[in-house]
Structures are given as structure tokens and as C-alpha cells.
Amino acid sequence: SRPILGLPEHLKNPRLSKLIEFYNTWYTPENMVLVLVGNINAQQVSARINAAFGRLPKKGIPERKSYPELEIKGRTQHTAKIGYYPSVALVYKGVPTGHPDEKALDIAMELLSNSNNTGTLDKLVISGDLTNGYAFLNTLREQGRCIVSVMPLYDENQRRFESNKSAEKKALKAIEQIAKGEFPDWLVEAIKNNICRDYDLRMEANESKANALMEAFINEADLSKVLNYKEEVMAVTSEDIKRVAKQYLTDNYLALYIEKGKTKEDNKLKKPGYKAIEPPVGQQSLYATQFKNMPIGQVEEKFIDFSDVQTKKLNERSQMFYTKNPENNIFSLTLRYGAGEREFPKLGIAANLMNDAGIMGAYEPQQLKEELSKLNATYSVNADDNYLYITMRGYEETLPQACQLLARQILMPKLDAKQLSRIKGSLLGMRQQRKENVPQLNQALSQYVRYQDKSDYITELTDKEIYELQIAELTGDINRAANYEAEIFYCGSLPFDNVYDILSKNLPLVANERPSQSPQDKALAQVTENTIYFLPNSDTEQAQISFFLPMQGYDKKDDVLRDAFYQYFSGGFNGLVLNEIREKRSMAYTAGAYVVTPQVKGNPTYLSGSIGTQNDKANDAIDVFMELINNMPRNAERMDNIKSYMRQEALSTHPDFRYKASYLKRLQQMGYEGDPTAVNLPKIDALTFEDIVKFYEENIKGKPYAIGIMGNPKDIDLKRLEKYGKVVRLNERKLFNTKDALF
Q1: Is pLDDT larger for residue 113 or for residue 587?
Q2: Measured between alpha carbons, how far is residue 207 from residues 210, 230, 657 in Å?
Q3: Any residues with CB less than 8 A from the CB of 321 and at least 6 apart, and which?
């Protein structure tokens, strides 16, 4: 009900005494945790921690305000007209973190929807009765909620969404089935195994381990329960689930209806008359001096060893890339066929359908989901311009059976007509609303600035083409894409030869595959004169500004220079863009710029910038950004920090073992034979500030650019923008494919 930062009246005149009081109350050692996960010596680091943090004075644990438990009696509806699309959230009382019923209730919600799509709510989506739906248990330290969210089906013929009321009725039937305990024991076991598999996958990352420990501190949880998470999940019985489902999924719930509408423009803040805060040149505080003089530990110069990535041809062209999994027995398998939406424009929709497809003459969609669930395997299908991706994960003991099912589905997919109707309705429904959807309009404008008539929103399928889509042509697109050569990335604990034998016998790879032309880059727009594209929109609360400046073709020899320029120009809070626009002048909440590199070496790189700011600050923010572009400030003092950061980043950035092979493949496409750090580290050490200035003068200064601006024309002075180039006023229709439009 209130933004975390507070309401505008809280922010206009904050009392300094209250800020100090808040700090002294809550920033105490007893209310604090330090979590370290990684290759550390616990005994050594604990001594350092004690020496540093042991100096903090003891203050005691602050007293927390307690809140009464939410009481829901019967069905209570709340409606808000604030969405682009209608949706319903059904909210039931839940349990706080650590409650004895937590694990059982979590599984009960997974029986409604889960990653295998075998839940009662999932079935409604697969059968085409809802656009989408999901359920989850939200547990916090003091209270919890069971939440079910659904979006009504869009009727492609009547060109409107069904009612929220009808969506609620369908969701309630799915919930009632679980509340009555109408679910098989095998499904419970499959979901428990699935939860444990996902837990193991999360625990491969140090960040996930740290988050688990941090959440245990926040929720005052017993660490033994965190460490024994899988054992506790597997100990839950079907009877436990039936009990909690009946207890919590009752007739007492909140029905939150989101209807199409606009939020009220309350409490608009006027542009403050702040002047830039210029720090004194050449002066430093005692703290800054001491901090800068602290020694920086050097990361060991240890480069990525790709020798454990094994490759072998599976066919005439198709190749397997194998990486050992040192953590567990969960495999990950990705088939990347070398044709995408560039060759088959409808392939993305076909891939979407494949996620809920069956096998012709063998399995209906829901039956196939159940078979894969019994094998504890999940898969997903998607496509982009260059490739068709099929990704599967599961336990290696069932790898052959999972691959056999996957191969049969790819070779003989049973795409579902009701699913196609749902997807067509979803696409058409979103298109009907998108000219009022500010984020999507901004994306379309940014695409137009970079690609002009080759924008994804202009080359997309027409409304009529979507409306007339047929199962046969989409099935054909899957078959045709699967005839191209494939790259198969496998990570697991089975020996290489065993995996090769299983995959060569069970994957759907045709003989004499078609050669791939992927990857390719979409051609960037030619910018011959400075141009400002303005899209008037009185609904946008913040003006959205995008900046595009084409640069030279990609060559790996310039990687260090490009990165050094990025770190100087826009590398986080120290970068010029954020520092000058936000920190010094409070002209924007978001601001940044970065150099984009292509997928194919030799193709152009480009500078991309963005600013999100109040409409009445847009002109001023552009002035500052353009001053940085035209006359980049020189601050050579930052050079040591930039070089240190680049060195540490290069040596400490390593790919996750599951993506090591695909990372190597990407490096090879860009011209590297192994770890780029081995080549680039001497270049980093030799960098000078003059190198950054030279890169700027050769690639940025004086080069033609294009700017896209979406904002309220009442607050943005177009005449003032003319000093930066020709101003072109756009409308929404210019940004989308309007041929055979239905809306």
C-alpha cells in the first residue's frame, strides 16, 4: 500500500534527526549478519572479522512492532483498475517461515502448478482454458500467504478477454481438487523429487548458498533445518498434504481483481531547482585518503582451463560438447539446431507450442508431462532469430528414457489446437493493449532507433497471419528446423563415452543435416545525420530516452579498450553518466551507457545509452548526456581504479560449469582460442588514460547519432532539442507492423 521509499510527503522534507534515530536503532551488531561462502579459510577469516567488527559497541536487539494476523472471513473481493490486462489473485492464509506445516503446504501449492506442468492449474492452461496460471506459497518471518494467480482466456474470435469471474471459477475448481485430497501418490513423490533436484541445482552457486544462510538469519530459522532441507521435504507424506490443503485452502480467501485501467496521477513532484554538487577539485577527506591507500589483494593469475570440454561429432555436421559435472548427478542437455526465426518466422510460436505438446499416436500433452515427471525430467523449447533450443534437465539414471521421449516428441510432435488458440489469443490480446503499454512502446521505440524498418516490431507476423495460423504449418516448421545441423551441449557426471553412446542412439539427428548460417546479426540502421525521434505519450510518468551511436566493426584486439572506455564513461556509480546526471544533479533515477558487441566478428559495435527521468527534467538530462558525448570530461585520477577493477574482474569471472562449453563456443566465434584473460591481461596492465581518450575521440566524438524520446509533449521542449539534430515526430503506428492489422 506504500512504496518502500515512502510517500512523496515523506520525501520532500525528511527530518535529519529521524534519520539518525533510525540508524542508531536498527544498525546494531545484534541485528546484523555477515555471510561468506567460497574458497576461504574459516579460522583465518573469523579472526579478521572479529578484529574489524568486534569494535562495534553492543546495543541490544531493537524491539520490533508486531502485527495482528490477517483474518479473512468468506470471500472478500477487492478490485483495482490498474492493469494492461485483466488478472485475478486468490489469496489464502498461509504459514510463517519455519512453521511445521510449511513443507507440506509448499507441496500442496506445487500440486496446483509446478515446473513439470502437472498441477491441476497447469492442466487448465494446457487445455486452453486460461491464458496462464500459477500458485505458490509466500512465507515470511511473521506471516505467510498461499497465492493463486490466473489470467483469463482471450477469445480470438470475439477479440476480448473472458471475465475475471470466469477465470476465478476455473481456478477454484483446480484448488478444490487439491483441498479435497484428490491427487495420486506418484505425483506427490514426483514433486518432492523435483523440489530436491531444483534445490541441488540452486546449491551449485555460492550466491544461492549465501542467500539460504541470509534468509535463515532473517527468519530466525534453525540452521540444521536449512542443511537438512531435502530430508525434510522427502519426509512429507500424502496425508500431511491432504491435512494442510483442507486446513488452508478453504472458502475464506481474498479475490483480488485487476481490471484494465490507468493509475491515478497523484502527488506529482515538480522539478527541484537543484544545482550540480561539484566536489572540491584536488581535495580528499582523511577517510578517502586512507581508503585509497589500503593495499589491494591480487587475484591469482589462474586462467580458465578448457581442456575438460570434450567434443565429438554425432553426425556429419552435428557435434557434442561434453563437460563434467563435479557437484551431483543432475544432467543438463541443450540441443541447439542451427535455424531460427530468420529462416522460419513462425518458429517461435511453434516452439512455444512444443512446451505443451504430446507425441503423435502415443501421448496426449498431459500424459507426456506425467511420463517425464515420473522420470524427474523437465524440458523447455524456445527459438530466437538464429536457433531452435531444446533444453532438458534430470537425473542421469533416467537419461536414456528421457532422451527417447524427447526424440519422439521432436520427430512426431502432437501440437494441440486448443493450445494454439490460447497462444493466438494471448498474442492478439497483448497486441490489442500494447499501444497503451508504456514499457512496450519504449521497447518498440528503441528498436526503431536502432533498426528502423528492420525492427522486430515491424517485421513481426501480422495480426492476420497470427489469426490464420494452423497446426500443420507449425509442426512443419519444427520438423524443418530439426533438419539443420545441431550443437549438443551436455553436462553430467557420466563418463564421456557413455554419454556419447546414449545421445548418438537416442537423439533425433537426421543424416545429411542442412548447414547452418547462424549466428547472424540484424543489420543496424545507417545514421548519416544527428536525428531525434520523439514519440509523444501523455501517459508515461517518466520520460524514456534511448541513445544510439554506431561504431567500428568488432575486432577482439579492441576488447580491452572498449571495456576501459565503458568503465570510465558508464561503469556503475563511478562512471561519468550516472555520476553527472544522477549523483550530482538528481536529474534521473536510471542512466547508463554501454558498448554493444555483435555476435559475428567484423560486424559493427555501437554505443547504447538510456535515461529514465521526470518529463520536466528530460531536456536538462539530455543536455548533460550530450555534453558528455561531445566534450567528455578528463579525470585521469580514476585510471588506477579502472585498471585494478578490470584486472580483478578478468581473473575472477569464470563461467558456471554447466555453461562452460557454450561459453567456449562463443569465444571461438569471436576469434579467441581459449580464455581471453591470458591475451588481455598484459593489455590491461599497459593501459593509460590517453588510450581511453584516444578511443573516445576516434569512435564517439563528432560521430552521428540517433536519440529516441518517449514522453509528455507538455513538458518536453522540442524546439530546444533541435540543437542536437533533426527532430522527427512519430506515432505508435510507425513502430509496429500495421499490415492487415485487426486493432
Answers
A1: 113
A2: 5, 19, 15
A3: 309, 310, 311, 487, 488, 489, 490, 661, 662, 664, 665
Interaxial angle between packed helices 185-202 and 238-248, expressed in degrees from 0 to 180 and rounded to the nearest 10: 90
> pLDDT tens digits for 251-309?
999 999 999 887 766 556 676 676 777 777 778 889 988 988 888 777 788 999 999 99
CA-CA distance, 267 to 566, in Å (whole number)? 37
Q: Grid coordinates representing 294?
A: 589500503
Residue with cell 556429419: 316
Q: How far apart are CA 144 and CA 444, in angstroms?
A: 39
Kindly report the number of other CB atoms within 10 A of residue 300's CB atom: 6
Cell of 723: 540543437
| Single-letter code of the amino acid located at 558 | D
Residue 159 — pLDDT band, cuts 50, 70, 90?
Answer: confident
- What is the full DSSP assignment across 618-670? HHHHHHHHHHHHHSPPP-GGGHHHHHHHHHHHHHH----GGGHHHHHHHHHHT
Q: What distance, in Å, lies between the first and last C-alpha atoms of the chain?
A: 35
CA–CA separation, 182 and 697 (whole Å): 70
CA distance 168 to 700: 55
- What residues form DSSP beta bridges with 392? 333, 379
CA dist 311 and 344 (Å) reads 29
Residue-wise pLDDT for 167-216, tens only, equals 999 999 999 999 999 999 999 999 999 999 999 999 999 999 999 999 99
Single-letter amino acid code for the residue at 482: A
Residues 6+ apart with CB under 8 A from 270: 616
Could you tell me if 378 and 392 are in contact, meaning their C-beta atoms sit under 8 angstroms apart?
A: yes
Return all residues near 287 (Cβ < 8 A) that are at least 6 apart.
none
Asked if 167 and 152 count as a contact pair (C-beta separation under 8 A), the reply is: yes
The DSSP H or E segment spanning 617 is none
| Cross-strand pairs, 383 | 388
pLDDT digit string (tens) for 507-519? 988 889 999 999 9
pLDDT in tens, 359-396: 999 999 999 999 999 999 999 999 999 999 999 999 99
Distance of CA 79 to the CA centre of its chain: 29
CA separation for the pair 97, 285 (Å, rounded): 45
Would the pTM of this model clear 0.70, i.e. be above it?
Answer: yes
Residues with Cβ within 8 Å of 306's Cβ and at least 6 positions away in sequence, in order, are 660, 664, 674, 675
